[in-house]
């Protein structure tokens, strides 16, 4: 499979790239600044996305909203819209999005980000990711999309290959924890690229 990975050097993106390449897939990584070994791409440039996506089998969007206190949703949604337009222009139907955890439900109709104990420092980013999910649900019906939410905590760790998959509800363990290593998240994402079991919906993964 030929995969265009937008955001290839972040904590998650770099592990998705490694996992996919280890399985024999061809990965074209992109970064805004053109880091070594990647192509230069502004994800909000639909024409640029289309040019790079051409000839690929799938696109993975693995970028995060700005974390500098500025508008988080605006840039992420601009990138989301451009990627949707770009993959259409390139004729690529498969899109997998590295999403956020904040939009996962902790009770019927109650999102994690709405919990009063949710860390304020991550709220803007989480709300932006929730808006991106809404955008994809509304506007990507013609594409084979999947939005993959991590659990509450995702960080570098061990590649175990053992985890659970879920839907719109936050997954927690017996102690109430909700976490996964970035390495195991990458396994779940590449699994989904290969098997397409969750086309047209959001899923999540956790221990």
Automatic annotation (TrEMBL):
Matching Pfam families: NAD_binding_10
Signal peptide region: none
Residue ranges of the TM segments: none
NAD(P)-binding domain boundaries: 7-194
Matching InterPro entries: NAD(P)-bd_dom, NAD(P)-bd_dom_sf, Polyketide_Oxido-like
Entry protein name: NAD(P)H-binding protein
